[in-house]
Amino acid sequence: MSKNKLGEFPFEKGIYKNMYKDRLWTMRQYAGFSSVNESNKRYLKLIESGVSGLSIAFDLPTQIGYDSDDDMSFGEIGKSGVPISTIEDMENLFKDIDLEKISVSMTINSTAAILLAFYFAVAKKRGYNFEKLRGTLQNDILKEYIARGTYIFPIEHSLRLTSNVFEFCQRNIPKWNSISISGYHIREAGSTAVEELAFTFANAITYLDKAKDDGLDIVKLTEQVSFFFNAHRDFFEEIAKFRAARVIWAQIIKDRYKITNVKSQLCRFHVQTGGSTLTAQQIDNNITRTTLESLSAVLGGAQSIHTNGKDEAVSLPSEENATTALRIQQIIAHESGVANYIDPIGDSTLIKDLTKKMVEEVNLKIDNIFKNGGMKTLIENGEIQKEIEDSAFKFQENIDSKKTILVGVNEFINEKKDIDSGTSFEDKSKDRLKLLETFKRNRDSKSVEEALEKLVYTAKSDKNLMPKIINCVEKNCTLGEIIFALKNIFGEYLE
């Protein structure tokens, strides 16, 4: 593998010939909290600070399909991200932001089709050129059953929605990445680096097979598939992991799907520094951790990077800490000299050997997955979840026994308690409920009812649901109303 050049199959060293000498990676900062207006202010501040792409965090009710005024949303509105229930919310979220000039990434899965519909409807309303819209929808539902738990529907219906989004984006938003397949959350749940790659690519195969069965053009689809990986503690292992990811994906596309199109073979990925690597103890140490993790992503050839704020072990990042996190990337890009060299790692024997070993172990695990029924079967049987739980338990054992040293946690401990306030914000839930009440009172109830009826009718068929979902949001149906209508047809997933 070491003889392969940059920009040449299997792309071990990087997907572009000149890498960052031609163009730096996209610097994204993940943000969303409290309210639509507060989140909008943070996005405008981040753009002013130099981010080249927005990454939207949604609150828990939005992720699992509840409007803010639902009883199930009580106590969670705006806590882990921005609450979005209506097209009006999405309009205000992107107030004064030119969607033709900024790339937008949305970390959303079960409700991905609806959030994309909100975004598309806003872009349509503003008269944007759909050819110029750039962004990424996570839309990776399988890892929710594995690692995060924000699923709604049974797996087969979730996969249908995922495939519907693929088709819609192909036809309407050609530069939009219709899925970002996430290993990040799998790693955060406690997996090893090998498991992170293996389960991520096995999920990717499952999505492609579904799309193929649905008659989609998977050559076009694979041109827009992207990935989302974790930058974890082990500096050299992570660099090797990113290089191995490109090799494995290129081989999957070439050997499994017989696709020779180079663009399809490219493993393009976003990297976020590890949330689980942050500590509440000696919180300033997290700046060093995220610097090393960001550097591993750069040396590993990432296309975009998010650096966590030092306070994210205890809270949402403060504006100051979010800016400092961005500055880490900017210092690496403009002061370290790393971006001046197209292949700074080169043919390092260490990285070469680690990469080769990673490729072999991941491929073996992927083969075993599909020999034993594939991801859907293994998820439903709980086998994937158990493997991750076992890895997480082993890691914790190593911390407890000090086989693994965490500075400030199990060694080099200060008796003084660390204090960091992070982001504090006023609870805006009452104001939000009033806005939602007004929105519902002023809309045409008959149009809402008719739109939902058309959605239900289509859900009973095998037709693409996206046009009816877009019609619903344009007729002022809420997120929760759309999800409830689909639940009546699809049911809910129960472990």
Structure description:
With 495 residues, the chain is of the alpha/beta class. The protein has one domain: TIM Barrel (Alpha-Beta Barrel). 51% of the residues lie in helices and 8% in strands. It has a nine-stranded parallel beta sheet.
Secondary structure blueprint with pairings:
Blueprint: E1 26-31, H1 36-49, E2 53-57, H2 60-63, H3 87-93, E3 103-107, H4 112-126, E4 135-137, H5 142-148, H6 155-172, E5 176-177, E6 179-182, H7 184-188, H8 193-213, H9 218-224, E7 225-231, H10 235-256, H11 262-265, E8 269-273, H12 285-299, E9 304-306, H13 319-334, H14 349-371, H15 374-380, H16 383-400, H17 429-442, H18 445-459, H19 466-474, H20 479-490
Parallel strand pairs: 1-2, 1-9, 2-3, 3-4, 4-5, 6-7, 7-8, 8-9
Helix pairs in contact: 1-3, 4-19, 8-10, 8-14, 10-12, 10-14, 12-13, 18-19, 18-20
